[in-house]
Model the fold of this input.
Amino acid sequence: MNPPPVFDLWVFLKTKPLLWLVLTLGSWVAARRLQDAVGGAPWANPVAVSSILLGVILWLTGASYEEFFAGAQFVHFLLGPATIALGITLIEHMQALRKLVIPVFGALIAGVVASVASTWLLCHVAQLPADITLSMLPKSATAPVAMAVSESIGGNPSISMSGVLLTGVTGAIIVTPLFNLLGFKNWRARGFAAGLTAHGIGTARAYQVSAEAGVYAALALALAALLQGLLLPLVL
Amino acid sequence: MIEGFLVLLSFQLAGEALAHVAHLPIPGPIIGLVLLLGWAQLGGGVAESGKQVALGLLSNLGLMFVPVAAGISFQLRALGNAAWHVGWIVVVTTAFTLVVTAAVFAWLCKITQREPQ
Done:
């Protein structure tokens, strides 16, 4: 018996980057609409929802990550210019930022130390193997920094990547309910904490909440990347 | 739009080049961001078209993380039994870091604002 024509079509399309690009953009748009439909609830984080959706599609179709990434890479490429775009919004808030040099650098150092120290402590409490512990330490840094740091301190860059993504999505989901629960109303501090802890995914969430929170998140993201990229390999 | 993109990509390219030449352990785009801030400090401006493209990209910033995040199920498998521990440690340390960072930021804001201007 011949396979049904739709199967033939699938075999043809599966190898086309265009299919995976369309599915990536499509799942993103669907995830954004879902979040709108539930009143912008933080738990319906669009990065998490669309990634899970795509993960399920990959699992159901048996497509490889390489086939998927051949199309998704065009979106991935935009991370670079988007990082520069963060700088453009920083310039527009330079006046306000100059008055906050002490809070910014104080919170930067406190946050990075809190992240690395608490991760180290809990990994030891859980008696995780040394390579996993080392890989988890830079999990609040942006992905490329975390992977580079991980490699230079003897961790596994691929495990670091999981730690970074889980931290980003967790931070983006819990930041709003957590600070609301604590009655914390300083939006600059909230944004800065989101960017420092949950890097780009937290910054994306902060921009969703307010432009001001987004700017402070972007600042924290950039400063934390510089600090962790330059210092962690020396300290650890 | 193309002019705006050109501005963003040029700073990124400059950052990538500097990171490579100086063997910096920091990604090129972050160096490019620092170069852009330095450029602004020197009095340089960014064209309106650059701002437009920047806003367009930032309104969908989360999308840029989806290609990598979609592969996480492949990576979690590599963790095996440690995955559960990693999960709860991530939740606890993320909440802790958020609170410490925001609290220190707000506290230092209060202290520095009390000083005479």
